[in-house]
Specification:
The protein contains 29 helices and nine strands. By secondary structure, it is of the alpha+beta class. β2 and β3 form a beta hairpin. α11 packs antiparallel against α18, α14 packs across α18 and α19 packs antiparallel against α20. The longest helix is centred in the N-terminal third of the chain and has 31 residues. It is globular and about 80 Å long.
Length: 666
């Protein structure tokens, strides 16, 4: 009779990321794992083999052909981390074996009289064995014709070998003890100065350790004056080399000036100014507007100074938030400098759309129910552990880019786990649980069992998922959003339209999108980005919308002040529209969907140099602010309080280094 496989829930103690992508079964006395994507069953090899299967790593397991690319990449990164940790442990064991223990033992033995054969150093109470000992290579060689003497000498030789060896278990214990002492010392430092433990996640934490370890016992810590003096100056010089490389590329790609407001714990208000380029973002300066009567004028003057310092010819746009003082300053800049744009933050604009969606009666009611379910589950560790067993370690809550994005992401994750949650609240384990009989437990049972709740969740997800996609694109660190945002807003509206049969139903959502999008004057740069992105331009069926053409022409007139160059660009547009010359090559056609738009123009736009230069400068820009790139330290409050010019300059230097080191990690 064939044995039946029984499913086993994955406990919360299993932390490997691959556990979320497999199921566990018990077949007799054996435990088997099953891939949730292709249903392949593994009868041995454990979670590591499943991980190799998902990562597509050949050797011990066949590759999964149905796993999503993001999951495959995650598994590959996890496998690489295992290899790195293994090599690091091996290296540490070799260093300890070669440097510390054997040296001490050999020194002691060298000082011992060899003739005292009756006395031997006892290193461990366990019986010596070849599997537990590190044996030196140079063993003594004794020769004698006398058999009894030879036997005695063998015994003596064996004793000498034992006394020149050390148990590997003792080495491991010593290594662990040393690590514990180091960790305790670090912990005391963190707790004494009030550092957040999140500091260990800094990309500079491990290099700091590596630098200390490489210098051995002779290294000494920096002094207070070192950190305020030559260390800070050298850090500024290092960053200057990098930022100079950014500036050198702005002549080709252009840059965007980003203006962000920071409110400190003490209530002080600072305006932080950044420069975004295709190669990266750099912090420029911070302006204190806490006690300013007319902040829009101050912001305008500082931005004017920054633009003139960078070079007006290098600046494509200035991006700010929607607050009135920044809108006034931005519009004033655009009127004074006729070759750049002022643009409100696209990410903030999309978030305002989502906020208005949340205010609609149906959506508000469903989000309230979903939050009730998650609060009840996450406020009780017993129910939380039960939920994680039934969802195979998957959580309901995930932090989004904004508060609204978090709420709609919650709905999506909750809907994705609906079958698991329904299995949980109908299980015998739940019925016997005392929390299920309380009012809260009965309420979440009603919600999870309500089919109309899940139908409403499905509709809301379909309505908001396109806007969440726009939010991810405009906040992407891998590719500039300028060539995509216009098309994605249009795509979002079309998806919403398909969800409804009646025009009046989808117009409720369209009006919210149009109101937020159109009133902020987004069109010229974003429309030009759409026009110049070959992926979208060549997929248009019929004539290009007049709004897009108008935006493209507006950018030519504003960003290219020379009228002769403008005329050349208009002529070159015909080659682009007709896919003539290099634009029509088979390689160029294939690359429309694979290369970044700016790279596509750099590669295939050589026959239209003026148009290609404009296209690269537009398509290399972001359309959103970067958000806070750092974990706050009270440097701005110190800047506000200090009246000493030397101290003020030092704090500004420290702020410059701090921000730019954080931006390196983004």
């Amino acid at each position: 009779m064939a044995s039946v496989s029984e499913p086993i829930p994955v406990t919360s103690q299993k932390h490997d990321p691959a556990w979320k992508h497999c199921e566990m079964f018990k077949n007799g006395d054996r435990v088997q794992l099953k891939c949730i994507y292709c249903s392949k069953i593994f009868k041995g090899g454990g979670i590591h083999r499943i991980k190799e299967h998902l990562a597509g790593q050949k050797g011990n397991a066949s590759s999964c052909l149905q796993v999503e690319p993001e999951i495959r990449l995650l598994m590959q990164q996890s496998l690489e981390g295992v290899v790195v940790k293994k090599k690091r442990k091996q290296k540490l064991a070799e260093e300890i074996t070669n440097v510390n223990p054997t040296t001490e033992i050999n020194t002691f033995v060298d000082q011992t009289d060899v003739s005292t054969t009756g006395l031997h150093l006892v290193h461990d109470t366990t019986e010596p064995s070849s599997s537990f000992l590190v044996i030196p290579n140079d063993e003594p060689n004794y020769k004698s014709s006398n058999r009894r003497k030879r036997g005695r000498m063998k015994k003596h030789s064996s004793s000498t070998n034992i006394s020149n060896s050390i148990p590997v278990s003792r080495i491991a214990m010593g290594s662990k003890r040393a690590s514990n002492e180091v960790h305790m010392a670090i912990g005391r430092f963190f707790y004494d100065v009030g550092l957040s433990v999140e500091a260990v996640n800094s990309s500079y934490f491990q290099p700091m350790f590596d630098a200390i370890a490489s210098q051995g016992l002779e290294v000494s810590p920096p002094s207070y004056h070192d950190l305020q003096g030559w260390v800070l100056r050298n850090s500024l010089e290092e960053l200057k080399v990098e930022t100079d490389q950014y500036r050198a590329n702005w002549g080709r790609t252009g840059c965007s000036i980003l203006v962000e407001e920071l409110k400190t714990a003490k209530g002080n208000i600072f305006v932080n100014i950044f420069a975004y380029g295709h190669e990266g973002t750099m912090f420029l300066k911070s302006v204190d507007i806490s006690d300013v009567a007319n902040p829009s004028d101050v912001v305008y003057e500082w931005l004017k100074e920054v633009i003139e310092g960078i070079g007006l010819e290098n600046v494509i746009q200035v991006i700010t938030s929607y607050e009135e003082k920044y809108v006034i300053a931005g519009k004033k800049l655009a009127s004074i400098f006729s070759t750049l744009y002022w643009v409100p933050c696209a990410s903030q604009c999309v978030d305002l759309m989502l906020q208005d969606f949340e205010k609609l009666e149906l959506i508000q009611a469903i989000i309230t129910q979903a939050k009730y379910v998650t609060r009840y589950i996450y406020n009780c560790s017993f129910i939380l552990n039960m939920m994680r067993r039934y969802t195979f370690g998957n959580d309901i809550i995930a932090i989004g880019i904004t508060r609204s994005a978090t709420n709609f992401t919650l709905l999506k994750r909750l809907f994705g786990l609906r079958n698991n949650l329904q299995s949980m609240v109908t299980s015998e384990e739940w019925m016997e649980c005392p929390y299920s009989k309380k009012s809260g437990g009965l309420a979440i049972l009603d919600v999870i069992s309500d089919q109309s709740f899940w139908s409403s969740c499905s509709l809301i997800i379909n309505l908001t998922d396109p806007l969440l996609r726009v939010l991810r694109i405009v906040n992407s660190e891998r590719r500039p959003g300028m060539g995509y945002v216009y098309a994605e807003i249009y795509r979002a509206k079309q998806i919403i339209k398909k969800e409804f049969l009646n025009k009046k139903d989808y117009l409720v959502y369209w009006n919210i999108i149009d109101q937020k999008w159109e009133q902020q004057q987004h069109f010229p740069l974003h429309a030009a980005g759409f026009y110049l992105n070959p992926k979208f331009f060549y997929s248009i069926q019929g004539d290009v919308h007049n709004e897009v053409i108008s935006g493209m022409l507006d950018c030519i007139e504003r960003l290219v002040p020379d009228i002769n160059t403008q005329d050349k660009i208009i002529k070159e547009l015909n080659s682009y529209k007709n896919a003539a010359a290099d634009f029509g090559r088979k390689m160029a056609i294939r690359a429309r969907n694979t290369l970044l738009p700016s790279e596509w123009w750099s590669t295939y736009g050589g026959g239209c140099p003026n148009l290609a230069r404009l296209a690269v400068r537009i398509l290399s820009q972001t359309c959103s602010l970067i958000g806070s790139p750092r974990k706050h330290i009270p440097l701005e409050d110190q800047l506000h309080d200090t009246k000493n010019s030397i101290e003020n300059r030092r704090l500004n230097d420290l702020l410059h280094v701090h921000y730019n080191l954080q931006l390196r990690q983004m």
